[in-house]
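Table 4 source record.
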Amino acid sequence: MKAHLKNVRISPKKVNLVADLVRKMQVNQAISLLDYTPKKAARILRKLIASAAANAKNNNSKNVDTLSIAEIKVSKGLTIKRFNPISRGRAHPINKFCSHIHVILKEDVAEPTNTAKKAEVKEEKITKKVEAKKPAAKKATTAKKTATKKAPTKKAATTKKAVK
């Protein structure tokens, strides 16, 4: 349930941008998302994920609908070095980066229903505690607001008369 692609002539930064979109997704969702992503890395990743799914189906007899992406690693590959000639016989270097891409798929297993029931019971207990605390907090804030009001000062009125 693995697929590797080595020394792809595209920068690892550019591949990682697209790989971040499909990490931890279902295989079918990832492929349909990559079909409409307008990047070169999207085409490459789509083929690689489809290859990993085909490996899982043919070699391990897995159902493609239950597969999800466990891991996508993009690492640095070879660096192709070129140069750009400039004036006075000098040259500026050009580095063309390649990348290695590794895709690992896993089969999703349905979670048992007992854990879902336990989570619901915990949520109910938490909401009951929060509801009990909220009314007490509101009463305290209203008492503080009434105590903080002050009468306007007379200095402002006297300064206006002096200006006229």
